[in-house]
Design goal:
Blueprint (H helix, E strand, L loop, with lengths): L6 H14 L18 E6 L4 H8 L7 H8 L10 E9 L2 H8 L7 H27 L4 E2 L10 E3 L3 E3 L4 H7 L3 E3 L5 E3 L5 E9 L17 H5 L4 H5 L5 E2 L2 E2 L1 H19 L22 H8 L12
Antiparallel strand pairs: 1-2, 2-8, 3-8, 4-5, 6-7, 9-10
Helix pairs in contact: 1-5, 4-5
The structure holds iron/sulfur cluster (2 copies).
The site of one iron/sulfur cluster has 14 residues, from helix 7 and helix 8.
Length: about 300
């Protein structure tokens, strides 16, 4: 079996599933899909960034090799033989527009993509594992393994042993904003997913050397619009207070159930009505990306 596959093959599997899966649904009267497109990136299993995450996020954050070894113990592998496939599902315009009007709790459309769109994202992870295994490549979806859990973190209040946003950052798909969200070429209003597979795929070059390069606040000290958008005062110039955010998400459950009549939750107010909603707001970074320019090798994460 060929140990290599192309990024084009990976992208096709993801796009075909988005187009054809009946699970891609808002579960409402419109019959509209939750998602209509994806950005896809790949990182190598032996990229030094995985060790940097251990230092920055915490020792509990898995490397691709660690999570693969735990869940495919009969498949001997080196870190270099693994690839991490990550994708971004950009929120559709109508969903973003609906949530721009929200002031405290999410619009119904946003809450539906948070719940049913994320259910599709989980199905996409399983689909990609299945497709890779059909090609002879053992694979695992770190977010779906039984020992994925929330971990208490001194630095971040809470964290997890696998962060989809960090996987997407490693795979060249975006950088972090003041609010902690990942700003991608299609903006910050999106959801992310990933799988780890024993297969060689050419990694996507990371078009940034700074892990905050796409956020206006870190680029030139302006913006801060996400601070004003947050109904829970969870964002300040010091960053994102995860505990305040978590508590607000909890409060949103009651609103969603009472107002929209389904079991759901969400917020995402900081992801819309801001300059990074649907693109990269830092002009120089956006134009460099459009020209296909790559920066010098990145320094270690601060
Ligand atoms: S709204 Fe502005 S400050 Fe907040 S993450 Fe986006 S670009 Fe950065
Ligand atoms: S930080 Fe949390 S509570 Fe605040 S707007 Fe963003 S998702 Fe909502």
């Amino acid at each position: 079996m060929d140990a290599q596959i192309s990024r084009d093959w990976v992208e096709k599997q993801i796009r075909d599933f988005i187009a054809a899966s009946p699970e891609n649904t808002m579960q409402d009267q419109t019959g509209e899909p939750a998602w209509d497109d994806a950005l896809v990136g790949v990182a190598s299993g032996d990229d030094p960034i995985w060790q940097q995450y251990k230092e920055y996020v915490g020792a509990f954050h898995w490397t691709p090799w660690e999570v693969f070894n735990q869940h495919c113990p009969g498949v001997p592998v080196t870190a270099a033989a693994l690839s991490v496939i990550a994708w971004v599902l950009p929120q559709r315009r109508r969903i973003r527009e609906a949530n721009r009007n929200a002031l405290t709790f999410p619009a119904e459309e946003w809450a539906r993509t948070r719940v049913y769109g994320e259910a599709f994202n989980a199905a996409l992870r399983l689909h990609m594992v299945d497709q890779l295994e059909q090609q002879g490549h053992a694979a695992v979806a770190p977010m779906l393994v039984p020992n994925w859990t929330i971990v208490k973190s001194e630095r971040f209040s809470y964290a997890s042993p696998w962060s989809e946003r960090h996987a997407a950052h490693a795979a060249g798909l975006g950088t972090f904003g003041l609010c902690d969200g990942l700003i991608t070429a299609r903006g910050k209003a999106m959801r992310v997913g990933s799988v780890v597979a024993k297969v060689s795929i050419a990694p996507t070059p990371r078009p940034y050397s700074d892990h905050r390069a796409y956020c206006l606040y870190f680029a030139d000290g302006t913006c801060g619009k996400c601070i004003d958008r947050c109904p829970a005062q969870a964002i300040t110039v010091a960053g994102h207070d995860k505990e305040k955010c978590r508590q607000h998400l909890g409060r949103s459950r009651e609103h969603v159930k009472k107002t929209y009549r389904f079991e759901g939750y969400g917020c995402g107010l900081c992801q819309v009505g801001v300059p990074c909603e649907a693109g990269i707001p830092v002009r120089a970074a956006r134009e460099a990306l459009e020209r296909g320019e790559l920066p010098p090798p990145p320094p270690p994460l601060a």
